[in-house]
Amino acid sequence: MRGTVLHAPGDIRVEERDHPKIIAPTDAVIRLSATCVCGSDLWPYRGIQKMDGPSPIGHEYVGIVEEVGDEVTSVEPGQFVIGSFFASDNTCEICRAGYQSSCVQREGPVGAQAEYLRVPLADGTLVATPDVPDADLVPSFLAASDVLGTGWFAAVAAEVGPGKTVAVVGDGAVGLLGVLAAKQLGAERIIAMSRHEPRQKLAMEYGATDIVTERGDEGVAKIKELTNGLGAHSVIEAVGTQESMLQAIRSTRPGGHVGYVGVTHDVALDGTELFFSHVHLHGGPAPVRRFLPELIDLIWRREIDPGKIFDLELPLDQAAEAYRAMDERRAIKALLRV
Amino acid sequence: MRGTVLHAPGDIRVEERDHPKIIAPTDAVIRLSATCVCGSDLWPYRGIQKMDGPSPIGHEYVGIVEEVGDEVTSVEPGQFVIGSFFASDNTCEICRAGYQSSCVQREGPVGAQAEYLRVPLADGTLVATPDVPDADLVPSFLAASDVLGTGWFAAVAAEVGPGKTVAVVGDGAVGLLGVLAAKQLGAERIIAMSRHEPRQKLAMEYGATDIVTERGDEGVAKIKELTNGLGAHSVIEAVGTQESMLQAIRSTRPGGHVGYVGVTHDVALDGTELFFSHVHLHGGPAPVRRFLPELIDLIWRREIDPGKIFDLELPLDQAAEAYRAMDERRAIKALLRV
Q1: H or E segment at B335?
Q2: Separation CA B1–CA B3 (nearest Å)
Q3: Distance between CA atoms of residues A64 and A282, nearest Å
């Protein structure tokens, strides 16, 4: 079967790879309907995150169950399913507390930019839609596999809710879907921090009430200006750099909440600043599985349209162009048709 | 009047200082019944926190209202009152959210190791007891002024509650009163991390169910061993060093909560470790005012006895010996009779 392999920074290829097989009785193999390129795939692609030799890549997937192991009971061949970047048993104490991405048995399905994928712990990882969805819903379900679930977790971690002012740092797919999540969770005011017009536009469509184009200290000053000098109640951080983390923390009022989901790179937080900021800090790899049933329902009923974040669609074989377009910020997010 | 002045590291003196006066119409002047030395006073005393010349010191106080400004309505001369290290208006949006120690008008009453103290924003800062208390209750009310309120905030920030396992890093007064708070808040299991026998004993009296003497990575391993390999649900950090913060974060299970109240010194938190830890992090200067009414009630009804943490009592004039005893860890906390 065909699938992507990242050979070195900037060198992504679609190659013939082994067809995945059931290894453990809790596995499923799915035939992918669509996959995509994640902002976090760009870290190794850009050489910022070190890699050990060529590696299959991709961790966002939806598709039709092809085969299941003997112990799988909750999904069956023919069903359309959505999973996420960490497989989880969904039964351990950590999963039951809602942190499936820290499941004691967690492992990552690897190489999801491909025709087929083996998903471990299928019962605890995959969620089926009520029926095979119409084609136009596939991008939205694919978004639920990571970026929607991640933006949603960020909003929940930031304790977004009715009456609150929310600021969103980062205008990638996760940040934009953080705006959508904030709207769904009842935020009164949603400030999107973006200087890119197409992204500003999508942020407004998703429910942003204000756009702030300034960054860093100027961005913080602008958020303060919009919030009686206090800062936002809830801030979603969806980048992962030192600058964006500080921008998020400093934009939050004392007692407010920062939900951070941008995979952190070279971030060191000064204890004294954090101490006196009085903010709540929570985040990490989103436990997408916690939210999948609810997100699937919202998409199935066409209440939300997270699939709009895909502004580029290419066949799997053109994955290299998809990476380039995202790296150069020509595309917010690229969907790969399988 | 007499009061302490820290001249240089290790050089604390009791000197004649100006008798405080009402400056603003919202001020009160109180005649102190007792004051004490705080763990955080030891930072400048030890020369770890820089100081600009000689400075009055101390921020924990209880006493009788001597005089109030024209606008003060909630306390009156003759009442026994308790305040805390930051004065707050208790009416701004931040105060109403429970973060009085980040009040938009906050200022610190300074130099509380003295006979008299001016307290700004008296209405929003001071809380009176139902009547002038019996002498044996004074140490407990004094504890409420900072260390009890701080330990309590740490437990609340760590989301301590029924069914939860709590670990406490730090066996100073705040850590020990964090144990007391955890017990009051219904924790199922309370693990005190301490290697000092008298402190272990007090921790057990306050409700600790387990004592862990190991520190650092070994301490973390021990906490994991006691919690099915997962870590505690809630961890109270009451020291403020890099080692203690990491010990707290690493002792917490994914999805768990760290409440940190040790004033941080030279702490830098690695973003990647924090990200993948999946913990909630919240803390800072405790909004003691939020908890004072409840704490005063518990003490007045003799349900809790936080005054036990004072294991040394000296007249104000012997403040230097009080500092030495705490610095050398001969005393947990020293009360100064005024």
Answers
A1: strand B334-337
A2: 7
A3: 34
Given a cut of 90, whether residue A52 has pLDDT beyond it is no
In this structure, which amino acid lies at residue A264?
A: T
Q: What is the predicted ipTM?
A: 0.96
- Report residues of chain B scoring pLDDT below 50: none
- Across the interface, whether the CB atoms of A271 and B245 are under 8 A apart is answered yes
Structure tokens at B239: 């020291």
Tokens of A13: 């290829």
Contact in structure between B174 and B262 (CB atoms under 8 Å): yes
Residue B233 Rama label (left phi>0; alpha psi -120 to 50; beta): alpha
d(CA A211, CA A220): 13
Whole-prediction pTM value? 0.96
Beta strands in A176-246 (DSSP E): 189-193, 210-212, 232-237
Cβ(B56)–Cβ(B32) below 8 Å: no
Cα Rg of chain A (Å, integer): 19
* 3-state secondary structure at position B283: strand
Q: Do A274 and B281 touch (CB under 8 A)?
A: yes
> Tokens 């518990």, residue?
B298
Mutate which: B48, B93, B263, vs A, most A CBs within 10 A: B93
Decide: A283 and A100 in contact? Cβ < 8 Å: no
Encoding tokens for residue B26? 């919202």
Residue with tokens 């800090």: A281
DSSP B292-308: HHHHHHHHHTTS--GGG
Give the model's pLDDT for residue A50.
85
**Chain B residues interacting with chain A (CB cutoff of 8 angstroms):** 93-94, 97-99, 101-102, 104, 228-230, 240, 242, 245, 253-255, 260, 263-272, 274-285
Selection from A42, A68, A83, A271 nearest residue B237 by Cα: A271
Longest dimension (CA), chain B: 60
| Residues of chain B contacting A102 with CB distance shorter than 8 Å | 254-255, 278
Across the interface, which of B98, B229, B269 has its CB nearest the CB of A271? B269
Determine the residue of chain A that is closest to B245 in CA distance.
Answer: A271
For residue B37 the two structure tokens come to: 């030395």
For range A7-32, the mean pLDDT? 97
